[in-house]
Amino acid sequence: MRPTVVPTVTEGLAPGTRPTFSVVVAAYEAAATIREAVESALAQSIPPLEVIVCDDGSTDDPAGALAEYRAQLTFLRQANAGEGAAKNRGAEAASGDFIVFLDADDVFLPPRLEALGELAQARPDLDLLTTDAYLEVEGEVVRRCYDHTWTFPADDQRTAILERNFVFGLAAVRRDRFSSGGGFDESIPYAADWDLWCRLILGGSRAGLVAEPLARYRLHPTSLSGSRPRLLQGRCLVLEKALRRADLSEPERRVAAASLARARQASRLSDAREALRTRSPGARRLTFRVALTRSMPLRARVKALAAATAPAFASRLLDREDERHGRLGQAGVRFRP
Asked: Please, are residues 79 and 57 in contact by the beta-carbon 8 Å criterion?
């Protein structure tokens, strides 16, 4: 038996049949990596029903990179509309019981679909499934996704999903629930997966985890710092959207509001840091804004005030810090899917 983390079983729940899986890969400027990703899907110990690739207006010829496998997959192409739109287009073409999302630069280990199928068969009440994964930086494994600092809650998942995105992103979602839930919100360019998991779980779905690392999730040091401000902005959009729901209980609403306050605070800090790092003309204004925000930690306010008075010096310090921690594996990666 594989280790799992799952909600408390419904009384009298009988096992179901093994479901089929459609693997959907959204690709944008990923010709250098997509071949390995697709190969990992095709090489599963229990093969997927189908592999669907949606090219989101790339200019680097992912079709050419996959020429050898074209007979084994469905290849779609659309004008550039964003990751969520590409995943939705791929999902529309899927016919499996579950849709499994695979990023074009990540890899499934061979037993992953088999393990997801075992969990789905044992727990047919689950609509959302994932596994643990190895996190890699420049080809080096730095940690696993789930550990004591980042856990997968078995119960009260409604509250938990309003606190943080606890579902590792290369997830499998029951196709009919994906469709009835509206798919990915294409107006949220970052953290759209969290928004979808929120809608599913708040709408009654439950999630389960196979607690084995069965994927390789690749982090890119060159893009992490630049994407962090946009990711935090996306988190704010997700929580603002969740708070507009009429079906939240008052305790759930308080949790979501507290999460939004933290996300906004982190977003302000990140915007200020990025402005300093890139020597933006607005760096002084953003750092003063942090320094004058009373809800910010005192240490952050003091550092922001110092940076506001000497932004060029602060920028040089950040350059040195980025160089010192250029390999995230040496400093430790705090993963937030």
From this structure: yes
* Residue 182: Cβ within 10 Å count: 13
Are 62 and 176 in the same domain?
yes
Tell me which H or E stretch contains 186.
none
pLDDT of residue 26: 96
**158 by DSSP, 3-state: which?**
helix
Say yes or no: 255 and 206 in one domain: no
Indicate which CATH number applies to the domain containing 36: 3.90.550.10
Q: How far apart are CA 78 and CA 113, in angstroms?
A: 27
Is residue 333 within 8 A of residue 219, CB to CB? The reply is yes
Complete DSSP assignment for 250-291: HHHHHHHHHHHHHHHHHHHHHHHHHHHHTT-TTHHHHHHHHH
pLDDT means over runs of 10, the chain (337 residues): 91 92 96 96 98 96 95 96 96 98 96 98 97 92 93 97 95 97 94 96 98 93 60 93 97 97 82 64 59 59 53 48 42 42
Query: What is the pLDDT at residue 226?
Result: 47
From CA 273, how far away is CA 78, in angstroms rounded?
35
